């Protein structure tokens, strides 16, 4: 019997890990096969992306290699394109099929776990596709860090006021966790960098702008802490603009709905997510918002042998007093749903009753830079250093594997004893550029780096 797990994120990895433990005897005998299909051979612990961007954590410690933790599973690096659940088949492409130009492969299965996650929700804003920077992957986080330091290099080496102003203007769109934490960590890093390494760049020369379409930021931590976060950011000279939208960023000029215009070389888009496009390429029932209709037992509604959780699933929140409410698409629910999902697949195989997923939301924590943060945990509100400490303790306890916990803790300890490591490795994004030039090729020029 084959269990196909689509996606290697929180739900995909933790579900496969639970199945690997619960079905150990069956896997040894060869009665069961667990296949995990993921675009990347690792799971990214996304709450650590802001600290990775700020240099507090090494990028390799933000990811968990799937082959290391899922030793009894078959890992396939590729992407599932379509699913025909009526026939229990999935079509997928791998690096090998793409290199050969071969058609997509077909893979049969008996049980399906659909957990492809979500993708960035973009809008038809002029110039966004050409100049915007996302913040959902470790590659984007490190690329953004390199980019910010490169902008400081540019500002430090030019006397042109227009180039300098554009290089030192950083616009973040989206006031959720990703946008606020990324801005808070990078602003903190850039201020430290300017004070210690760039004598001709002052912290007050930089413009940090947070654009949010609604009237508040960080809604997960409540209105009081949301207002405190706005006050804290503005105290650090961050221009927080609520009830404001990005109308255009064509020509590297951010034009806002309130009429403001900011020439900038850095525009970070973190304005929400949407369900993965794969869901629309299945024959499974979807909600009006494009998520899978699921039951509280994490089965796909009205469909046998199909399971889902996380961002892709609309799961009833049975712990909520509000009728019809669904669980929020966040890591807190995804990790817990994965455990129940794995157990329920085992229960189903053994003819046992299924468990109901019920979890009362414990709270939220957010970092705003070194020693700064906000947290709401079990009704208690924390600010400043206590919240930042709670943020680190919480995520250290949640990051997978003892190996990763020890490495992250060691890096935090060393960071407290020594100065920050400030260096841009932007050439990593184009490693062959120097060799191509030496071999007689044309000098590489990134079209996004032109003024």
UniProtKB/TrEMBL annotation:
One Gene Ontology MF term: NADH dehydrogenase activity
Keyword flag NAD: yes
Residue span, FAD/NAD(P)-binding domain: 1-337
Glycosyltransferase as UniProt keyword: no
Keyword tags: FAD, Flavoprotein, NAD, Oxidoreductase
Superkingdom classification of source: Bacteria
Family to which this protein belongs: Belongs to the NADH dehydrogenase family.
PANTHER family on file: NADH DEHYDROGENASE, NADH DEHYDROGENASE-LIKE PROTEIN RV1812C
Name of the protein: NADH dehydrogenase
Organism (species): Streptomyces minutiscleroticus
